[in-house]
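Before relying on records like the one below, remember that each one covers exactly one chain. Contacts with other chains, cofactors or solvent are not represented anywhere in the record.
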Amino acid sequence: MRRSATATTLSFGRVRQLVLIAMGWTIIGLGLLLTPLPGPGGLPVALVGGVILLRNSPHARRLFVRMKRRHPRVFRPVERIRDHLRARRQRRQWRKG
């Protein structure tokens, strides 16, 4: 059986997505390595990696939504930040248009 040429080649968008997913995991790992050091360095770095991962991985997004539904109290601070950013973005769009 012979595979088609499109099955073996990756598009630029898919390669970009895979690179961003790998970068997100790398940044999360770096944040975990920075956690024992003094100061708040590890948590913000790991959060940035998580944001990159959530924006580029459908599997991670599904897992995040599932965990959010199972444990709403744990993820409430994340929802407050998202609500605040969404409201700010809508106010900015309302002023422009």
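Residues 59-97 form one domain.
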